[in-house]
Amino acid sequence: MSQLEEVEGLVLSVRKHRERDYLVKLFTDRYGKLMFFVRGTKNPNFKLRSAIQPFARASFIADIRSEGLSFIRDAKNVQSYTSVQTDIFKTAYATYIAQLADAALEDRKADPLLFEQLLTGMDRFEEDFDPEIIMNIFEIRFFRYFGVMPEFRGCVFCGLTDGPFDYSSRHHGLLCPKHFHEDERRLHASPKAIHFIRLFSVVSFDKINTISLKQETKTEIQRVIDILYDELVGLNLKSKRFIKKMHQWENLLKREED
């Protein structure tokens, strides 16, 4: 059974299928994540070319199937995130977030709030907000979708919500100084990094323009998040490995300039 209707969607990925066709994965406002089949992309007059580029958003006229592949028939109000599509660094961060969404979300499960957050995240990339902060916010938010959200609200023992904290893998959450003894192998992370990880778990994207971090703090935040992903999620995405290599390139260039 199928129905032709209009849906808002963000292109998560595009994969070539045979010679002339593509498989396009969209995250939509009303149907969640769906795979679409697009025919005839080699035609010189192919009208959907801009709409099915990675990270494009549009109103798609689609044949939505209850099972199997759906079909894109037309698109309007196409918005291409030009700098995200052309800047290798922004492309890397956006690709990683899209792959995280693909891994974390079930097919055909609507999540209008996350849909809006993904669109806002792409807007912030385009507006030259700090891409590492945007990436970290999504990494932390996706813990919930993987079903492994740590306790970031306060100390897992006494519930204290103010002051310095450290993270305990053993207890799957934060420890206040009075309870550091409960886990000798706690991460010994910097209190500042833990503070911002807690902030990123709840902050609105409208507020991130007020956040400015030193590289030292960003590096520590990423260290903690990477440890948590290794322990709790176990993903080894190619896009994340590329981002790590990208940072190595940046460090080499900085050393050469010095």
TrEMBL record:
InterPro entries to which the protein is assigned, alphabetical: ARFGAP/RecO, DNA_rep/recomb_RecO_N, NA-bd_OB-fold, RecO, RecO_C
Function: Involved in DNA repair and RecF pathway recombination.
Protein name according to UniProt: DNA repair protein RecO
Gene3D superfamilies: Nucleic acid-binding proteins, Recombination protein O, C-terminal domain
Family from the record: Belongs to the RecO family.
Sequence ranges assigned to domain DNA replication/recombination mediator RecO N-terminal in this UniProt record: 4-81
Gene Ontology biological process terms from the UniProt entry: DNA recombination; double-strand break repair
Record flagged with keyword DNA damage: yes
Matches recorded under PANTHER family: DNA REPAIR PROTEIN RECO
Keywords per UniProt: DNA damage, DNA recombination, DNA repair
GO cellular component, one term: bacterial nucleoid
